[in-house]
Amino acid sequence: MTREENYFRAVEFRYPAWIPVSVSLMPATWKKYREDLEEIVVRHPKIFGRYKKGSRNFDEFTGLYREGTHTDEWGCLWKNIRGGLDAIVVHHPLSSWDAFESYTPPQPGEGLPHGFMFQRLYYLRGFENLMMDFVDEPPQLHKLIDMVLSYNLAVVRKWVARRPKMVHFGDDLGMQDRLPMSPGHFRKYLKPCYARIFGMCRDAGIHVYFHSDGHILEVIDDLIECGVTVINPQIRANTLDGLVKVCKGKVCVNLDLDRQLFPFCTPKDIEEHVREAVVKLGSRQGGLMLVAECEPDVPLENIEAICQTLERYMLYYS
Is the whole-model pTM more than 0.85? Predict the structure, then answer.
């Protein structure tokens, strides 16, 4: 069985041969550990595939991982203060509604960046402004939402025409321990947008993968209703028991393991963490995948332990 075949067996609850696992290494992590990290990657082809030593420039960063400032096609100014980690938006072109009438959105491109709907709204307005808009409901708000939605639909329409098996989306909806908005506001302003975007994919028989950082437990059922077939939530922000309650058997979970634990724990802690997730959220039928993101503050010993542990527990139900 190929990796792709096994992956979709897990997504569709069709008894995969193993739990799909992955380890994400930030560019800054590569820069810090360099050849030592390469040694780990080479030792674990089941996770990283075939890797050729010397094929990576540890000091070269692209896109928003590059230190400095960058203005995107929407007019949002991004700033990165440490190359290899991500940038943030520091200037919002629609922070004042006075600029809205003369604002022209970009022409739909070929892809959607991380933060395509909710985050794009606050990239344009500013976070506090958008939260106030959800409460005050100024007339421009619905026009802004429609503008961003129309852009997204145009891009996704191009994707659907190519008939992929899955389309990936990312939009961080949560904070560390709660939603930044009420579930009611989510359902009023954002859920209809996701339903149209994801529905276009599902109507064509295409799986929808959705990533969100932060606490999203209260709206996971809504996201499933919108068409999400694989959800990528953070375990710490949502708790394992919370995710078991709202997700198990309903939607495939690509579980983002606890990246806030990895810098400070022992290899034994990692083993216990992964085992608990597999036992509670997994099943022989499938519906579980595991991903571990390693920032530059994770010791090499723990990156190695993560890889070894994932390789063991990917076969737990085999």
Answer: yes
Pairing of strands 77-80, 68-71: antiparallel
CA dist., res. 203 & res. 270, Å (int): 40
Q: How far apart are CA 112 and CA 318, in angstroms?
A: 36
What is the reported pLDDT for 273?
99
Cβ atoms of residues 237 and 257 within 8 Å = no
CA 86 to each of CA 82, 89, 231, 236, 256: distance values in angstroms, whole numbers, following the listed order:
8, 10, 22, 20, 18
Residue type, 18: W
**Could you give the 3-state DSSP secondary structure of residue 179?**
coil
Of the candidates 312, 296, 237, the residue with the CA atom closest to the CA atom of residue 262: 296
> Which residue is it, tokens 């930044």?
180
pLDDT of residue 139: 96
The one-letter amino acid at 102: S
Task: Tell me which residues of the chain have a pLDDT lower than 70.
Answer: none
- Type of residue at 295: E
Q: pLDDT for 7-30, tens place per residue?
A: 999 999 999 999 999 999 999 999
Distance between CA 232 and CA 243 in Å, rounded?
11
Distances (CA, A) of 311 to 18, 22, 44, 203: 10, 10, 8, 36
